[in-house]
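Complex record, two chains
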Amino acid sequence: MNKSSVSLFIDKFTSSRLFYPLLALALILVLDGIFIPDFFSIQVRNGDLYGRVIDIMRNASTVMVLALGMTLVIATGGIDLSVGAVMAIAASVAAIMMNPVIIGLELPPDLMKFMNDPNFTYSPLWEVILVTLLVAIICGAWNGALVAHMKIQPMVGTLILMIAGRGIAQLITNGVRIQIFYQPYAYIGQGWAVLPFSLYLAFILFGLIWLLVRKTSIGMFIESVGINPKASFYSGINEKNIKMLVYIICGLCAGIAGLIASSNIKTSDANNIGWAIELDAILAVVIGGTSMAGGRFSLLASMIGAMVIQAITTSMYAIGVPAFALQAIKGFVVVLVIFLYAEPVRAFFQKLTLRKAVKA
Amino acid sequence: MFNKNVMLRIFVLAVVLSLALSACGEAAVEAPVATEAPVVVATEAPAEEPVVRGKGSGLPCAPNCQYSDLVVGFLQTGSEGGWRAANTASFNETAEQLGLTLKFYDSQNDLAKQVAGFQQFNEDPDVNVIVLSALETTGWEQLIKDAYAAGKIVVIQDRRIDAPADLFETFIGADFVEEGRKAAREICELLKDSDSKNVWELVGNVGSSAAKDRGQGFREAMGECGLVVTKSQTANWSITEGKQVTEAWLKETTDVQAIFGQNDEMALGAIEALKEAGLTPGVDVVVLSVDATAGAFTAMLAGTLNVTVECNPLLAPQVYEAALMAANGEVLPEWVPSQEGVFRSTDANLQEIADGRKY
C-alpha cells in the first residue's frame, strides 16, 4: 500500500459517521479489558458462544431494534417517546394470545399442563407474531397520524401513547403478569445459533430497513423532510406520507423489541417491560451521531450506539458498582461519551489524525 | 436553537420520568418520602371541638358492635399490579363474607383524588370506618382529626404514614425486616450441609423501604449460620434487570450457593440467567424470593425456586377485625404486622396451596 492510500484511508475513516460511535465503544471495551479480568473471554457451550461480550450484544439487541426505527423518526425531525409503551402492549398481546387462561386472578386449574408441555399454546406462533406486529403497526400509525396529519408536535403527540400505552397493556392482561411457557416463542429472545437469535433478528431488520431507505429514494426523502419540510413539499415530496411511514416503521420496531424483551424473560410484564427504554433508544441515536434536528442519519451508527449503552450497563454490573451509585456513574460515563461529539474534541482528533497522516 | 431546545426538553422529560420511576416501584412499597405535605387543607375546620375523639374512642354502638354495623370507606391507592389487585379483591370478598358494607374509592394513584375521597368519606354520614392505603406518608393529620370529629374511626393499611400513632387506631401492614430475616433463615436451612455459603442479593428500587428493610433484616439474621453476601446490586424489582445482573455476575464466577431476590420478579430473572449459564436453579444454586405471587408458585412447582417468603396482600380480614375491635372501644397496638407465611418447593401440598392462592 502506498503512503497516499494509507492517509486517504485514515482520513476517510475518521470522517466516517461510524468513527465516533466505534471510538466510544472501543474506549469502554478497552477500559473493561483493563479493569475486569477475563472480560473478553468467550467459551463455547454446546456449540454456542458464551461470554460477556456476547451478553452485551444480546442485551443490546432490544435497544438496537428500537434505535433503527428511532433513527428514521429523528431523521425527519421528529421523536417517538412511545416505543417503551408499545413494547409493553406488544408483550401483553403476545402473552394473552398464548395464555388467555391466566386472565383472572386465580391460577388456572390446568396450570401443570402449561408447565409440563412447553409446546402448548392457544394460538400458533405465526399468528401470535402477526397479530402482535399488526397491533404495533397500528400504534405507530396512530403516532404518525397525530404528527403528520393533525400537525401535533412529535414530542406531545407520542407522549399520549407513552402514557396511555402502559395502561392499555395492563388492560389487555387485566393487570396480571402473564407467564409464557411456550418454548418456540421463548426462542426469539433466548434462542442461540452460535450467536444469540435476537442478534440475528436485529441485523436482519437492519438489512431490510437499510435496503428500504438506501436502495430506494425513501432515505433521501426522509433526510430532505428532516432538513426542510417546506422545501421538500414544494419539490414534490409527500411529507405526510414520509412521516407516516417512519412512525409506522418505528412502531413495528417497538413491536419486535417487545417480542424480544418478553420472550427473553418469558413473561409479559406490562409494568416494567421497556420502562424508560425510549430514552436509551434516543441516546443510542444521539451517540450514533444523528442530529436531533433531523437530516442525515446512519442506521449502523445507531446500532453501535445501542451497543455502547449496553456495554456501559454491563460493565457497571461487572465492576460491581454499588447499587446507590449505579445511576450516577452510568450518567457520568454517558457524559464522557457525549463529550466525544463536542466540536472542540472533534477538532482535536482531526488535528491528531491529520498530523499522523502527514507523517505517514 | 431548535437543536438545543429539543435536547433540553428531553432532559426535562428524563427528569420527570425518573421521578415517575421512583414513584412507582413495587406494590408493597411505602409511598416515597414526602417532600411536602399535600397542600390540601380542610377548608371548613371544625368550628367547635366539644369532645376530643381519638384513638380508642369507639363508635356509638360500642361495646356491642357487629360487623353488620360497620360501613367501611376504603381509600385504595389505585391498581398498579397483581399485589394491589389481590389486596382490593380481599377487601371486597371479605366484606361480603362478614356482612359489612364496603364503600370503595379508587384514588388512581393520584394524591389529590385520594384526599378528595377522604373528605368525601368524612362528609358521608353512613361511613363510620375509614381505611386508608396512603399514597403519601405525610399530610394526613387534619383529615384524620376531621374524621374523628365526625364520629368515625380510622385504620391505616399496607402503607405506613408519618403521623402521631395516637391519632388513628392502628397500622396493619407487612414487616419487611422480618421478611428479610425469614429469608436468611430459610437459606441457612437450605445450605446447612454446604461448606461455602456465598449469597448474591438482588435489591429492589434503591431507597424504597421494602428494599432497605428486607436487606437489613437479611443481614441481621445471616450471621446465624455464616452466610456471606458476596454480591449485591439493584435490579429495580424487574425480571429483565434481575436476569441481566445475574448474567453479568455469572461471567465472573459461578461460586454462588444461593440467590436472594427481594421480590419474585428479580428471582425469576435470576433463574433464567442460571439456566442459560448451564446451572440448575433450585439444585446447583438455591433461589429464594419475597412476595409469593403466582409466578413464584409456578417456579416452585417447576422446582427452580426453592422458597418464597410471603408478602401478604390479603389484609382485609385483619383490617376488618381491627376495625371491629376499635369500634368497640378497644385500644389496639400501634402496628399489627400482617400474617405472613413461608412457602417451600418441598411443601407436600404445594399444588393445592397454589390452586387456592388469590394472587
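Note: Chain A touches chain B through 51 residues (CB under 8 Å).
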